[in-house]
Amino acid sequence: MKVLIGGYTKKTSKGIYELPFTGENNDARLSKAENIISVGGPTYFQKDGDLVFAINNAGDEGGISAFKLSTQGASEVDHYLTPGASPAYVGINREQKLLYTANYHTAVLSVFSYNNDGKLDLITTTTHKAEILGPRPEQTDGPHPHFFDQTPAGNLVSCDLGNDTVDFYHLEKGKLKHLAQYKNEAGFGSRHIVFSKDGNYFYVVGELSSKINVVKFNEDNWNFENIATVKTIPEDFTAHNGAAALYISKDGKYVYNSNRGHNSITVFKVNDDHTLSLVQRVSTFGDFPRDFNWDANQKYVVAANQNTDNATLYLRNAGTGTLTPIQKEIAVPEGTRVLFTK
């Protein structure tokens, strides 16, 4: 098993790094990070077999690049770049070989197809418009979609930080059809979303509010019911914080999010009524943890600290949901995306 970490390339990072994973339980460790893909600003990426699809910040242009991994190294096999900023998020459907990108700066959502060789084809795009923008400084300049991926029923969903909205789409005959919209509270800063195991609830994290909103919804008639909202940071924490990544365990029992500023991962238990109860806030032992992730068995968790160029490895208790740090100060530059791989 290995861990891939990529991020910004503003200081010393050259792109995506591979860290070998050895040992088990409390003796598990990540070894030295080695650069395996050289690319500008791979702040998010996905993997399908020997293909890696990464955000590419190529100076005056931005987009995504496809790389093929081999024993000889990684080679770029295709890219799709347009003038301006690169996207913030890449989603993937490995069965249908589709990619979904959300561009925070240009407000463009894109859908791509790819083949076994990594060849990319743009299927369609849509652009979010300024609707009722939130009141915070980060929102007043326009819409900012920060997430674009699939729903449990196979539709698509985007979180828009500028508009405080969750928008649902269906890919129909090569076009994106807007189906419904859920509006978060003003200033929420909708960023990432996960769904309950039964597909009847979603949890959306607000970057600007440091909150998670629990919503009951129906993908047939698009009824939404606001169930509850919880803070991801302590009430008495007054310094700047930006809530970032959001994950739910595969058994549906625990929800996790990272806090950039409070520099922690928050663990919530999912109650029988799908509300959330605080279980733990654990330090990431660094500054600005944008992403974290777990292995296929969700036994190990790695958090990447962007500003302090380090990562932390945790052992996860599946019964209680808690995280125990077992390795700190793992050197990796400017990390913003974590992905376990074989």
TrEMBL record:
InterPro entries hit by this protein: Cycloisomerase_2 (IPR050282), Haem_d1_sf (IPR011048), Lactonase_7-beta_prop (IPR019405), WD40/YVTN_repeat-like_dom_sf (IPR015943)
Pfam families (UniProt xref): Lactonase
Origin: domain of life: Bacteria
Membership in a protein family: Belongs to the cycloisomerase 2 family.
Protein name as it appears in the record: 6-phosphogluconolactonase
Taxonomy of the source species: Bacteria, Bacillati, Bacillota, Bacilli, Lactobacillales
